[in-house]
């Protein structure tokens, strides 16, 4: 008897792949704490040309199904589903979708993978469901899902203030980055609730920003509890200026060219995983959308 190969869970080739890029926090200064416990910060969100991918099949019923579950995340907690439901509920759209996620970014890595997935779902479904919301409105819906969602919705390398949602586009030289995962997951909340986190960095003016004179205020605390992050930073600093992104655990090193970044990736001790990506001023999601609309 011939074996029937089921394709029911596979996306069809005509379902375009929508980029869901990573970001780096080139610096992260914590300038205060709000009454609700959230922290005011200053950061430079650098978009990368590397990340996850999402595919969507639009359906006529209002059902939203994620065909590729994320290990350890229940469907109702998945930011992709939450984003789709938020858009559906705000616009009253009666359309639904099946979604496929190709996950490449480490979770809890400080690369904003979950937030980026949510933003891609908002931007792509707004296009595919023809719900016509502006990026500002989508960013507002996204903020309720996570502090990092708006920057991915707006899709520009940007300075951020507030809790990360007040964005000022800030094009940067499109350097190459070696991003390395030390293999530990760090909960953002555990860092932000720690008594020893510095919370009073004096705000800088944007034109004063320089990589060498800025820092990540979470880095020292993370290194104290996670020796592997400290070890990795120490190793990378031998080759290039390096820093932790977000609340960790991933660390990046900055290079002016791709070849140099790739040669350090080849030298990486085998206990660590990494990738090389270019910093871009426009998110690959938005570049693709422009090409499609153009
Ligand atoms: C620090 C960054 O990684 C910089 O990119 C982000 O702003 C974190 O953004 P995120 O992962 O989307 O964070 P959320 O999911 O909104 O918040 C996770 C937890 O981090 C804390 N949190 C987050 C952002 C912020 N500005 N202040 C905070 O105190 C809160 O305790 C919150 O419960
Ligand atoms: N689609 C998703 N992809 C990844 N994580 C998700 C997703 N949906 C929900 N989550 C939850 O969000 C948590 C944080 O994931 P994420 O990969 O965004 O972390 P991060 O890179 O540290 O983010 P940030 O830099 O914003 O702090 C995960 O541990 C997981 O529980």
TrEMBL record:
SUPFAM superfamilies: GHMP Kinase, C-terminal domain, Ribosomal protein S5 domain 2-like. InterPro entries: GHMP_kinase_C_dom, GHMP_kinase_C_sf, GHMP_kinase_N_dom, IspE, Ribosomal_Su5_D2-typ_SF, Ribsml_uS5_D2-typ_fold_subgr. Keywords: ATP-binding, Isoprene biosynthesis, Kinase, Nucleotide-binding, Transferase. Residues 78-155 form the GHMP kinase N-terminal domain. The keyword Nucleotide-binding applies. The active site is at residues 23, 148. One of its GO terms (biological process) is isopentenyl diphosphate biosynthetic process, methylerythritol 4-phosphate pathway. ATP binds at residues 106-116. One of its GO terms (molecular function) is ATP binding. Pathway: Isoprenoid biosynthesis; isopentenyl diphosphate biosynthesis via DXP pathway; isopentenyl diphosphate from 1-deoxy-D-xylulose 5-phosphate: step 3/6. Its EC number is 2.7.1.148. It comes from the Bacteria. It is an enzyme of class 2 (transferase). Signal peptide: none annotated. It catalyses: 4-CDP-2-C-methyl-D-erythritol + ATP = 4-CDP-2-C-methyl-D-erythritol 2-phosphate + ADP + H(+). Residues 224-272 form the GHMP kinase C-terminal domain. PANTHER family: 4-DIPHOSPHOCYTIDYL-2-C-METHYL-D-ERYTHRITOL KINASE, CHLOROPLASTIC. Belongs to the GHMP kinase family. IspE subfamily. Catalyzes the phosphorylation of the position 2 hydroxy group of 4-diphosphocytidyl-2C-methyl-D-erythritol. This is 4-diphosphocytidyl-2-C-methyl-D-erythritol kinase. It comes from Bowmanella dokdonensis. The gene is ispE.
């Amino acid at each position: 008897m011939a074996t029937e190969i089921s394709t029911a869970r596979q996306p069809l080739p005509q379902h375009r792949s929508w980029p869901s890029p990573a970001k780096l926090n080139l610096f992260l200064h914590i300038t205060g704490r709000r009454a609700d416990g959230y922290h005011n910060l200053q950061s430079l969100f650098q978009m990368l040309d590397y990340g996850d991918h999402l595919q969507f099949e639009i359906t006529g019923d209002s059902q939203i199904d994620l065909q590729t579950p994320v290990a350890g995340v229940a469907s109702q907690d998945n930011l992709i589903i939450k984003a789709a439901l938020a858009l559906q509920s705000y616009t009253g759209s009666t359309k639904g979708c099946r979604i496929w996620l190709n996950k490449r970014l480490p979770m809890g890595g400080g690369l904003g993978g979950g937030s980026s997935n949510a933003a891609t779902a908002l931007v792509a479904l707004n296009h595919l469901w023809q719900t016509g919301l502006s990026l500002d409105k989508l960013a507002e819906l996204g903020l309720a899902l996570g502090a990092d969602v708006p920057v991915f919705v707006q899709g520009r390398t940007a300075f951020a203030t507030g809790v990360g949602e007040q964005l000022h586009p800030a094009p940067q030289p499109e350097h190459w980055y070696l991003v390395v995962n030390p293999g530990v997951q760090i909960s953002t909340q555990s860092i932000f609730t720690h008594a020893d986190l510095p919370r009073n960095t004096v705000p800088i003016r944007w034109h004063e920003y320089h990589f060498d004179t800025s820092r990540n205020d979470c880095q020292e605390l993370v290194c104290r509890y996670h020796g592997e992050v400290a070890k990795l930073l120490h190793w990378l600093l031998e080759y290039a200026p390096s820093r932790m992104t977000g609340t960790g655990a991933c660390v990046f090193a900055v290079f002016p060219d791709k070849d140099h970044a790739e040669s350090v990736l080849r030298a990486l001790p085998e206990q660590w995983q990494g990738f090389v990506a270019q910093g871009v001023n426009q998110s690959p999601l938005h570049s693709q959308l422009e090409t499609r609309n153009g």
